[in-house]
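[Help] Beginner question about ligand-bound structures

Sorry if this is basic. My supervisor gave me a protein sequence and a SMILES string for zinc ion and asked me to "get the holo structure". I don't really know what that means in practice or what format the answer should be in. Inputs are pasted below exactly as I got them.
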Amino acid sequence: MERGALAGGSAAAEVAGPAPTAALAEEERESCAGLWELPVERCERRPECGRCGRPQKVCLCPFLPVHPLKVSTCLYIIQHPAEESRVLRTVPLLVACLPPDKCKVLIGRRFSEDRYPELAAVCRNPSTLILYPGAEATNLEEIALMPSSPSVMIIIDGTWSQAKDIFYKNSLFRLPKQVQLKTNISSQYVIRTQPTNTCLSTLECAAVALTIMEKNKSIQETILRPLQALCSFQLQHGAQIHHSKEHLLKNGLYDKPMPKNKRKLRRMELLMVTAVQDCGKISTVPVRPVTKLCSFRSLKILCFVFR
Ligand SMILES: [Zn+2]
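Answer (accepted):
No worries, everyone starts somewhere. Holo just means with the ligand present. The predicted complex, written as structure tokens, is below.
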């Protein structure tokens, strides 16, 4: 009965004229008719510099070393696929500072022994380190003091959760010795919000790690120069300095809603305690912080607070 009634209703509408939705669609087509003929500006990506990866107009090559740095340590950057598409990436600058055989970037989430035999061999090599914080991680400076310094370091480039996912879901990455950085230097990547003043971007972590492993302080200065130029340029063109979450909390300027997730809230509480204590007990490692709930977007950093 009901189906018959509905069908009848529909038929009546057709007889009476076009249905309201059809009439609206027709109206819309008419109002847009002129727009379709307008010339369309093709959305093309700005041409990029082949060396630094920045748009050609803002090429950072003048700030890169003339010749790649001579280093004996080889870096493997394990980059989450989401990092590749970010506008302000720091890894291309790192790559441009080092010889091609000393900085290899592998993009992906899962790295199996079958698909990445070279990486698997690297992970099994006792002279390989992985930069990832944790209770098991040794301070890199202690390792560098050993007579036979390791020669390969793996760094994960991604947000906190991306890095964690990559580290824990790829058994290969738990084979190398785990290390972390313990430094008080402040991040110079001021155009991204960071959890604490001492959390570093991937580029900065690599610069600090190489300086320690190569026992050469000028490395850090050379690798950070293009980053300083990038930030300076962005600030001159309207970018704002992003204070760290730690700074905002310490100065009562944090105006974002606190996370509802208990684990994230705990992390924020730890950050606040640290901010209040202002005792510099924060270690730095590459990764990124808590994002969505705190509205803290992107950084290639991970903050690890010692308890
Ligand atoms: Zn360039």
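A couple of things worth pointing out: Residues 49, 51-52, 54, 59-61 surround zinc ion (CB under 6 Å). The CA atoms of residues 94 and 203 lie 6 Å apart. Feel free to follow up in the thread.
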